[in-house]
Amino acid sequence: MIGQHLEISVLAILILTLSALGIAFTPLSFLLMVILPYAAFVIFIGGFIYRVVKWAKAPVPFRITTTCGQQSSLPWIKSAPLESPSTVWGVIGRMALEVFLFRSLFRNTDVAIVGQRPVYGSAKWLWFFGLLFHWSMLVIVLRHLRFFIEPIAPWIKGLSAIDGFFEIGVPTLYLSDLTVLAGLTFLFLRRMAVPRLRYISLVTDYFALLLLLGIVTTGLLMKHFFPADLLHVKNLALGWVTFAPAAPKGVGTVFYIHLSFVFTLFVWFPFSKLMHMGGIFLSPTRNLANDNRMKRHLNPWNAPVKVHTYEEYEDEFREKMKLAGLPLEKE
Amino acid sequence: MASAKTPKPDELIAIRYAPPETPWMETPTVFRPGTWSYSGGAKSLTALGLPNPRAWQPSDADWKLPENWKEIILEGMRERLEKYRSFRLFMELCVRCGACADKCHFYIGSGDPKNMPVLRAELLRSVYRRYFTASGKRFGKLAGARDLTIDVLKEWFYYFYQCTECRRCSVFCPYGIDQAEITMMGRELLNLVGCNINWVMEPVANCFRTGNHLGIQPGGVKDMLEFMADDIADRTGVRVELPLNKKGADILFVTPSGDYFADPGTYTCMGYMMLFHEIGLNYTFSTYASDGGNFGLFTSHEMIKRLNAKIYAEAKRLGVKWILGGECGHMWRVLHQYMETMNGPADFLEEPVSPITGTRFENARSTKMVHIAEFTADLIRNGKLKLDPSRNDAYRVTFHDSCNPARAMGLFEEPRYIIQHACNHFHEMAEDTIREKTLCCGGGAGLGNDENMEMRMRGGMPRAMAVKQVKEKHGVNRLACMCAIDRATLTSLMDYWVPGVTVTGVHELLANALVMKGEKERTTDLRGEPLEGKAADETL
Amino acid sequence: MKLYNRGMVIAGIVVFLIVATFPLWYGRGKAVPPPDLKLDTPAIQGLKEKLCVETAPYMRANHMKLLTVWRDDVVRKGKRTYTAMDGRVHQISLTGTCLGCHSNKKQFCDRCHDYSGAKPACWSCHIIPEEVR
Q: What is the dihedral of CA B126, B127, B129, B132, to 10 degrees?
């Protein structure tokens, strides 16, 4: 079963690749180039919003911040405004650290029993490669905007120039292409090699990594080994965004596979664990201030419950209370 | 039913982290003696009006569930998915990165993969996917989904009562997924069909009726406090007053009932009483609100509210200005994160101001309840207490951050400030085991019972080993904490793993050091043990 | 439909929409004609058979790789001729052979490079001949 999860993911990727190849050599390529982009994009946007709205439809009944630092209490005690924020700005800072730098993951440790005692070692690799992958992916997505706008905005050119700073090879090898590959490979190997991770991994976990690896690999192949005609690629992309798509001929098989993977990602994204991209912003242990005793948090469904009143209490224990000399409401 | 014999420490520490050969969905749950808690008694459930009171035990084959138990659970899930964003998010957000896996003290101590927070959550997620997501309905196991069966329910019971809701995993999770929240949901669902444990349900039933978990009746509370006042007089020569249910007091003082029931909690309670006497605080205990602790937190959100209601009600009845709370862990999670939302607004109280120093407790301006550590730290800071830390010289002290004040409040510096003023020898444990990364005592959330002893010792092992380290390095012999459950459970934990270390509350240390007006020369600490430097034969 | 934290959630969705649809609104939907690559230089017009070193589709996709091979052949191996797939032999020279025909760098090279965001490194070593500028 554990092995099966991996095998099934590999199989799914293979099927995807073969379908893409099948499409490439038939008139169905029209579908891939003209219909599917819109369908995938609409599903991505719609699905994303659907998921967020579904989350937002459930209230946050309690302020359950996880505090990771000193609370704000007495003025002479130094509080931790980013780890235990009591203000909106603190929360924004905490969220920014979480989203941009994976603050919580940075705390990661690894435990081992050494000499009959648990020892906690620093384990920043997951943080490092996780962050590397996410930032690289962002840079790559932004770089791809060059195909979608004309003229190309200077900041995109600038980003590409920085990314290709070392000018290795022709065409220039982008650093982000290497780092994204490194990040994904690490995450994938880690999932396979660490027994407890393998134990918890599902098809979806492997599939996400394989799909992204597929996209990156085909992208690299197209750039460095089987070059695609960029003129055609850009014509196609501009056609999409100006709602005048036209399927070009002969852009290359790899390009078809690349596109199939990307569209699969778009369609699958909103219904998968990748929605952590949106979900992190809603996480109540992180996005709420630790100001519980300063401001009352309202629970929209706070309903009366059966309680045991003082009157009931005194009624039951009146004699005993009298005996003990305790004051009573009713003698 | 005799308790299982707990294995020796040497056997227990031989932990294997390799997962079993069988996938987790196909690995059956074995109710091994020593690793689970007895069922909630029918009497308690009936008293509380909770469903399905009956005689049963988790080790029975037949759990005597209602016929439609499955519908009840699934309907309960649906309802909670709509009521709690946290629940829905935590069911959907996890990417199984595994960062939480080895952060759980029960996993570190047992090596059971289902004690990894991620997998504990998957126990519930798998059912969520099967009944509430399209992919789970269609693809079943491939999508990580599985049917809700009686075995699954038993597995939930076993593992949701092997989580102390300590929130350590939540600190490390990149999305802040909080296993405590998932365990709370799991336990709520189990409660819907009458599956709960006695060490939670009996205290809850007691608390509902008598105001405290131990079921101490009004006269009993008074007797115990009097007994402590006698002890104080004996040790210090000062007789402290015993305000109980006193109308017109400035402050209502609420502490966990563990503090007036058993050692070493009682010494902490004596500490409060001495402190309040010394500063001349106009305060009162209450027999009705005689427990700030709230095992409702380990039952259901509804039960939290039912047990917590008495605190504001009593403050209102007695006409106090504000409320002061004693040293307790989960109690403070409830007071800090739930009380005012559930039973507020506290508009009948005043913004808390220390009558001694005039300090306004801004951080408690809405809830109007102040933590004793905040209150005392402020007294020390303003020079209102005369302290002789040398009276604690016999102790090499370390401090255990209790889970809830650490990760649901951020109360780190106040207790340390008090300890550092109350004793001369204070040594922190390893950085990975304190503050927000603090490790659990292994017996919180209702698991501190004797039949669950093996699991407690396993879960408490990481904490104990951190203590052992400072014992060996600095000769630490006293473990300070701010939690009534800790004071009870850490004691057994130390006896098992680190013999020679005793457990103390912060205010016990403070009271040892507190120089009181009109006191006699002290020769012993609150426990009656001779002070270091004072001739031992004097007391012999 | 009741949304909780409505303001923040809607703001978040709006930001997401704006970012995700960036290519759609950035160009305001204006159709952009593909670059008009001029092949009408006198040299090309003078050719009997209008054929580049290799076929046009091959050149479009692979010219940068071919140029790298050329560079290495000349600089590292001292090899000054290139035999095309169809057997024709060309002198390896960017300014001589390539720019000999494509003497309109601005209307040919630059247009396409600008369009696709490519940044060739040719001119960091080669000078651009005056007549091509």
A: -170
* Domain span at B105: 11-30+51-195
How does pLDDT run across A183-212, given as a tens digit for each residue? 999 999 999 999 999 999 999 999 999 999
Determine, for residues A233 and C116 on separate chains, whether the beta-carbon distance falls below 8 Å.
Answer: yes
Q: Give me the sheet containing B478-481, strands edge to edge.
A: B397-400, B478-481, B502-505
Q: Is the dihedral of CA B534, B536, B538, B540 positive or negative?
A: positive
Beta-carbon count within 10 A of B15 CB:
16
pLDDT in tens, A91-147: 999 999 999 999 999 999 999 999 889 999 989 999 999 999 999 999 999 999 999
Structure tokens, B171: 């600190």
In a domain, A285, yes or no: yes
Q: How many residue pairs from chains A and C have C-beta atoms closer than 8 A?
A: 112
Looking at per-residue confidence, does A68 or A20 come out higher? A68
| Cβ-based contacts of A69 with chain B (< 8 Å) | 410, 412, 435-436
SS (H, E, C) B91-103: HHCCCCCCCCHHH
C3 and chain A: CB distance < 8 Å anywhere?
yes
Q: Is the pTM of this model over 0.90?
A: yes
CA B374 from chain center: how many Å?
A: 19
Quick one: tokens of B27? 């690995």
Q: How far apart are CA B183 and CA B201, in angstroms?
A: 16
Report how many domains make up chain B.
2
Are the C-beta atoms of residues B58 and B65 closer than 8 Å to each other?
no
CATH label of the domain that carries residue A149: 1.20.950.20
Q: How far C101 CA lies from chain A's nearest CA (Å)?
A: 21
Give yes or no for C12 touching A (CB within 8 A): yes
Nearest Cα to Cα of residue B73 among B192, B165, B223, B251: B192
Tokens of A93: 């800072």
Is residue B335 located within the same domain as residue B286? yes
